[in-house]
């Protein structure tokens, strides 16, 4: 299972940069991360409408909180804070 060595939130470029322990550097936009949310609310929305979350283009990631050794919880500027992003899921994005 991939594990991050370092996670950096770049406000200027609105992106999250993850350095993985396999040497890979991944850059994910805040918008893409918000769109990728798989919390119960966003999954229900996707089931109901056939589409995932559609945040404003200027959405920003405000806070990153660790979730054990397993992943991170992301809090976005629209107040959405329910998304848990496990390492394997994050690693497979973008
Ligand atoms: Zn969500």
UniProtKB/TrEMBL annotation:
InterPro entries: GBBH-like_N, GBBH-like_N_sf. Keywords: Iron, Metal-binding. Residues 8-90 form the Gamma-butyrobetaine hydroxylase-like N-terminal domain. Pfam families: GBBH-like_N. This is DUF971 domain-containing protein. It comes from Herbaspirillum chlorophenolicum.
């Amino acid at each position: 299972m991939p594990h991050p060595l370092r996670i950096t939130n770049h406000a200027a470029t609105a992106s999250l940069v993850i350095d993985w322990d396999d040497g890979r550097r991944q850059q994910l936009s805040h918008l893409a991360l918000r769109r990728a949310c798989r919390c119960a609310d966003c999954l229900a929305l996707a089931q109901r409408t056939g589409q995932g979350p559609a945040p404003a283009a200027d959405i920003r990631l405000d806070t990153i909180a660790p979730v054990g050794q397993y992943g991170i919880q992301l809090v976005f500027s629209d107040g959405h804070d329910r998304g848990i992003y496990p390492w394997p899921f994050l690693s497979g994005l973008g």
